[in-house]
Design goal:
The chain is α+β, with helices and mostly antiparallel strands. It has a domain at 32-97. The chain contains three helices and five strands, in the order βββββααα. The strands form two sheets. It has a three-stranded antiparallel β-sheet. A two-stranded antiparallel sheet has the order 1-2. It is extended and about 55 Å long. 0% of the residues are buried.
Length: 117
C-alpha cells in the first residue's frame, strides 16, 4: 500500500491568515492512464473534462476517439485546477523552454516525407 501523500491545502481564508492545515491524500487506489487529447464541455453548474488517447494526432481521425476518463467538477474546483496547471506549466517552460502546442510547428518537415530507397 502506498504511503499517503501530504499536500498543502488550498487556502480558502483571506491571505493575511497563516496556512496551518495540511491535507493527507491516499493515492494507493488511483488509476493512471495516458491522454494526448482532452475535451472540455459543461453546464452552468459544472465542467466535464474528457481524456482520451488519439492514435492519429495529425489530421482528423477516421474512427471516434475513445474517451478513457471523464472528470466532472464544479467551476470553483476547475479554477483551482487551472491555477495549479498554470504554475506547473510556467515552471516547466522556465526550465525547458516554451511548449509549442501546434503539432505541425513541432514536427520537422523532412520527418513527414518518406524517402524512397
Amino acid at each position: 500500500m502506498a504511503e499517503p501523500t501530504t499536500i498543502p491545502e488550498t487556502p480558502s481564508a483571506p491571505a493575511h491568515q497563516p496556512q496551518q492545515q495540511q491535507l493527507r491524500v491516499d493515492d494507493s487506489k488511483a488509476v493512471s492512464c495516458y491522454a494526448n487529447f482532452c475535451r472540455v464541455t459543461g453546464t452552468p453548474e459544472e465542467l466535464i473534462v474528457d481524456f482520451a488517447l488519439n492514435n492519429q494526432p495529425m489530421g482528423i481521425p477516421e474512427d471516434p476517439i475513445p474517451v478513457a476518463q471523464r472528470i466532472i467538477m464544479n467551476h470553483f474546483t476547475a479554477k483551482r485546477l487551472l491555477a495549479a496547471l498554470q504554475v506547473s506549466v510556467q515552471r516547466h517552460e522556465a526550465a525547458f523552454g516554451v511548449l509549442e502546442t501546434d503539432v505541425r510547428k513541432r514536427v520537422q518537415p523532412s520527418a513527414l516525407v518518406q524517402s524512397n530507397p
